[in-house]
């Protein structure tokens, strides 16, 4: 509409006319453009708002100049609705103030759809303020409209929006809309709970759960609850016009444009997120200047049962059915998926009828049948097999300082709030009938076929707000720990803090998404045969097999490792379980695995291809100056520290050598070939499984030779030798001719000897450094690096530093 002042004046006159002559007032649904109430500065309009075909709700919205309301063009920003769940007919419906003092909305059929339930014998006035508050008040005839007694106001019964100066109280809550186009009540609620905390609740058709603040954070009191306080029982929250939202539980949220006077609103959107919107004036689009949940997939109910949510850089999130499951309603992902197979309970005991499909990076929140410690994978699988309701299980390795490593088994009776992210370092095993072949489902999940749940298209997220202000990893860890029921929260927290600190990819959903799309997958043998042109270009040969260069169908260049038959005693499932553990390792200094092939007796692994080759190649061709060598020493240490210590202590490499350290185009190292020598449970260390000597002559720790217990210190030793080789340019195998000794001692003894003698004259480093580097290096750093390397090759494994101590010592050089 075009609300000219004269039109407004007429509207007001009509209202006043009614007041004075019949002490009653009414607005009709017919001619919705005319039957409106405007606020003094026209900021807001109240009237009948079209919500569907011949369906209207009495509402308040931001006035749109030059725009008519039209049921085919519903675009106004509605901030309040009287009857969102019960729209009235487009004919003969009215809003009236009765002589009794009640404000009522009646439908064409004269039924009372909504009312304020007020009573007064005085003349009444209905006023829309410029704050957006619609107020029913008694008219004080002795004064000029001030100090009037307020009978009712719309600010006291918000729908999904809170305006500046409006207060959310213990008696009120925000309830989201059902969808982008439907204004009726949806599934999300922002409210003050009985413990005085402001929360977001998902109240779905079948289940309900609180997801903000993270439930485990407050239930456990201290840990992670941040600044929330349960002690202030005033239970009020509001958004000020500068853009700060503050709540009596100490939650304070500044919008990104905090401080500027703008039109603002806070809305609980239909997707369960609370967003603060702002704009200069009605000519502009709304701009999101803040949102409570930074990760849309962590909002409960977002994807429905039996599906998983992934972050999508364009549409914020994407829902995908689990392998073997199909959409219940392919227009509405929130309804979730149903199994496209039958597993009757009588078949449960028949183990042969079942299979468990590992899904990397997948977790489901809650609905655990229980959690079980110290179960082997087999026991966990059996438990789920025999439990009729079990739909799958999570089998996760934990490490805490006090307890060391152990496994936890979580059979799930419902698969809700599924979420998939590279950040999530765990496998979920989905229960499926044996007959099905859903392995490609992993690929489908990762490559699309998902349902995109689009976000309101008019809003544009400001870049700075997509990124989290808080440490996303920590938040994620808390979320995860919560799904375990708070077990070992502290220990897990501490340990995994390191896990996340170590990797540049963590904490950024977009990266996670990209790698998930590029994703880990199963390849067919024929596909890899084609990619490598029948294994024609061999680029390396190492533990367990030969490596070929290949070009995948999507044109990515890959290094494809074909494992020898000797490694193939295991079943495809065991192989897959192992490979997916390796596949989930995600660190910039570890080579990335893209997938695998297990077909008949063929076992292949597909890795990213490194154009620059290995450290060995680069050393022999004199490509590496001091900075590059130092960077490689550092990066390799970080990669190994991640393998050993950051939650994954049971993975030893056992064959560190320059051939297994690849370099990328920036000369950043990537450790390759890890995990193949059987993933070690810590308990297995030193037992018969490891009696066979592994590794490569020259780089092997004495433990192998003397048949002592094997620990992560064997890798530390080999790392030390590699660093000495980089410093000296001499190979531990061929470089130095000294009298007969254990071959791995040659280079090491030579350097030790140089140091012992050199210290007396005050310069030993210069005597060992690779002459091709001339004097282009930092002597101080070089000396530290050499000392670290020498500490790594000490015979007594307990004296050697751990890989993370190595990283720390090297890092301290840079500061
Ligand atoms: C809605 O109405 C406005 C103004 O009347 C017009 O500019 C706009 O294109 C319309 N939008 C749709 C989707 O019809
Ligand atoms: C009307 O206003 C006067 C002066 O402000 C006040 O004394 C009086 O109580 C008011 N009457 C009602 C009914 O609120
Ligand atoms: C409780 O919260 C309100 C609103 O934030 C604040 O004004 C009040 O001072 C708080 N009370 C206490 C005891 O902290
Ligand atoms: C919000 O901004 C105010 C004023 O700039 C500042 O004092 C406060 O610490 C900020 N709060 C948060 C949570 O960033
Ligand atoms: C989800 O899958 C389980 C079986 O795993 C099934 O019992 C349940 O009915 C499914 N949920 C819905 C909403 O179909
Ligand atoms: C469901 O399963 C049947 C038979 O197993 C298959 O033909 C059909 O394509 C599946 N449906 C979907 C949507 O995957
Ligand atoms: C389940 O077991 C029944 C008999 O116990 C058998 O008839 C049926 O084929 C089995 N279902 C599947 C999916 O194997
Ligand atoms: C699991 O094993 C650890 C150490 O082996 C032990 O301390 C713990 O009590 C065991 N837990 C259960 C539930 O058996």
TrEMBL record:
Cellular compartments annotated: Membrane
GO cellular component: membrane
Binding site for ATP: 561
GO MF: ATP binding; protein serine/threonine kinase activity
Domain Protein kinase: 533-815
PROSITE patterns (alphabetical): BULB_LECTIN, PROTEIN_KINASE_ATP, PROTEIN_KINASE_DOM, PROTEIN_KINASE_ST
Membrane-crossing residue ranges in chain numbering: 476-500
Record membrane topology: Single-pass type I membrane protein
EC number: 2.7.11.1
Signal peptide: 1-24
The entry's keywords: ATP-binding, Disulfide bond, EGF-like domain, Glycoprotein, Kinase, Membrane, Nucleotide-binding, Receptor, Serine/threonine-protein kinase, Signal, Transferase, Transmembrane, Transmembrane helix
UniProt xrefs under CDD domains: B_lectin, EGF, STKc_IRAK
EC class name: transferase
Any one Pfam family match given in the protein's UniProt record, by short name: Pkinase
Ranges for domain Bulb-type lectin: 34-149
Keyword Transmembrane helix: yes
GO BP field: recognition of pollen
Keyword Nucleotide-binding: yes
Catalytic activity field: L-seryl-[protein] + ATP = O-phospho-L-seryl-[protein] + ADP + H(+); L-threonyl-[protein] + ATP = O-phospho-L-threonyl-[protein] + ADP + H(+)
Family according to the record: Belongs to the protein kinase superfamily. Ser/Thr protein kinase family.
Protein name: Receptor-like serine/threonine-protein kinase
Source organism: Vicia faba
């Amino acid at each position: 509409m075009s609300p000219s002042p004269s039109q407004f004046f007429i509207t007001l006159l009509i209202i006043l006319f009614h007041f004075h002559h019949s002490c009653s007032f009414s607005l009709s649904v017919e001619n919705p453009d005319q039957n409106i109430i405007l606020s003094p500065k026209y900021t807001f309009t109240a009237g009948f708002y079209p919500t569907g075909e011949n369906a209207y709700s009495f509402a308040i919205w931001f006035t749109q100049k030059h725009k008519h309301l039209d049921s085919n063009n519903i675009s106004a920003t509605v901030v309040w609705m009287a009857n969102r769940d019960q729209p009235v007919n487009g004919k003969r419906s009215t809003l009236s103030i009765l002589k009794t003092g009640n404000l009522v909305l009646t439908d064409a059929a004269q039924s009372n759809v909504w009312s304020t339930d007020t009573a007064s014998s005085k003349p009444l006035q209905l006023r829309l303020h410029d704050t957006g508050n619609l107020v029913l008040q008694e008219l004080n005839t002795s004064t000029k409209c001030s100090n009037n007694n307020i009978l009712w106001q719309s600010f006291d019964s918000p729908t999904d929006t809170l305006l500046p100066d409006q207060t959310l109280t213990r008696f009120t809550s925000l309830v989201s809309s059902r969808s982008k186009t439907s204004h009726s009540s949806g599934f999300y609620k922002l409210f003050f709970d009985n413990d005085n905390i402001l929360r977001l609740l998902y109240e779905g058709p079948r289940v309900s759960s609180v997801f903000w603040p993270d439930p485990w954070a407050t239930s456990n009191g201290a840990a992670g609850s941040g600044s929330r306080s349960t002690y202030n029982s005033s239970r009020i929250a509001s958004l000020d016009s500068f853009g700060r939202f503050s709540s009596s539980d100490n939650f304070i949220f500044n919008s990104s444009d905090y401080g500027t006077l703008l039109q603002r609103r806070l809305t609980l959107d239909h997707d369960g997120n609370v967003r603060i919107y702002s704009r200069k004036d009605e000519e502009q689009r709304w701009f999101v200047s803040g949102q409570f949940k930074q990760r849309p997939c962590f909002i409960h109910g977002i994807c429905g049962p039996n599906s998983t949510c992934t972050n999508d850089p364009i549409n914020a999130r994407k829902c995908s059915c689990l392998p073997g499951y199909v959409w219940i309603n392919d227009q509405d992902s929130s309804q979730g998926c149903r199994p496209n197979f039958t597993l009757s309970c009588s078949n449960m005991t028949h183990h042969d009828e079942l299979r468990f499909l590992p899904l990397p990076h997948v977790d489901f929140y809650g609905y655990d049948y229980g959690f079980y410690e110290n179960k082997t994978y087999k026991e966990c699988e059996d438990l789920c097999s025999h439990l009729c309701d079990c739909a799958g299980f999570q089998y996760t390795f934990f490490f805490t300082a006090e307890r060391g490593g152990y496994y936890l088994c979580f059979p799930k009776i419902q698969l809700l709030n599924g979420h998939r992210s590279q950040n999530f370092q765990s496998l979920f095993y989905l229960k499926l009938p044996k007959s099905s072949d859903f392995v490609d489902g992993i690929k489908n999940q990762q490559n699309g076929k998902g349902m995109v749940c689009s976000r309101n298209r008019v809003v544009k997220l400001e870049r700075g707000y997509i990124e989290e202000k808080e440490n996303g990893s920590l938040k994620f860890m808390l979320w995860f720990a919560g799904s375990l029921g708070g077990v070992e929260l502290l220990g897990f927290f501490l340990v995994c803090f390191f896990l996340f600190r170590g990797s540049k990819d963590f904490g950024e959903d977009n990266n996670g998404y990209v790698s998930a799309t590029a994703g880990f997958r199963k390849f067919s043998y024929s596909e890899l045969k084609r990619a490598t042109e029948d294994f024609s270009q061999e680029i390396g040969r190492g533990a367990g097999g030969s490596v070929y260069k290949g070009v995948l169908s999507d044109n990515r260049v890959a290094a494809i490792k074909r494992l020898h038959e000797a490694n193939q005693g295991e079943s495809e499932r065991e192989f897959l379980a192992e490979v997916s553990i390796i596949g989930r390792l995600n660190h910039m200094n570890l080579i990335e695995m893209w997938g695998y092939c297990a077909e008949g007796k063929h076992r292949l692994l597909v890795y990213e291809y490194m154009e620059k080759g290995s450290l060995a190649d680069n050393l022999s061709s004199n490509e590496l100056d001091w900075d590059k060598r130092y960077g490689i020493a550092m990066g390799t240490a970080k990669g190994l520290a991640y393998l050993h210590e950051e939650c994954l202590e049971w993975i030893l490499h056992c064959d560190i050598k320059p051939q297994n350290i690849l370099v990328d185009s920036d000369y950043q190292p990537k450790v390759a070939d890890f995990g193949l020598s059987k993933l070690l449970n810590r308990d297995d260390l030193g037992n018969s499984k490891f009696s066979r000597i592994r590794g490569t002559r020259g780089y092997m720790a004495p433990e192998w030779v003397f048949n002592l217990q094997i620990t992560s210190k064997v890798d530390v030793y080999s790392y030390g030798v590699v660093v000495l080789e980089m410093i000296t340019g001499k190979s531990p195998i061929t470089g130095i001719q000294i009298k007969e000794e254990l071959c791995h001692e040659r280079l090491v003894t030579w350097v030790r000897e140089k140091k012992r003698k050199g210290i007396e004259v005050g310069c030993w480093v210069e005597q060992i450094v690779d002459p091709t580097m001339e004097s282009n290096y930092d002597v101080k750093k070089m000396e530290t690096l050499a000392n670290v390397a020498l500490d790594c090759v000490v015979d007594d494994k307990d004296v050697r530093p751990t890989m993370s101590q190595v990283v720390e010592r090297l890092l301290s050089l840079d500061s």
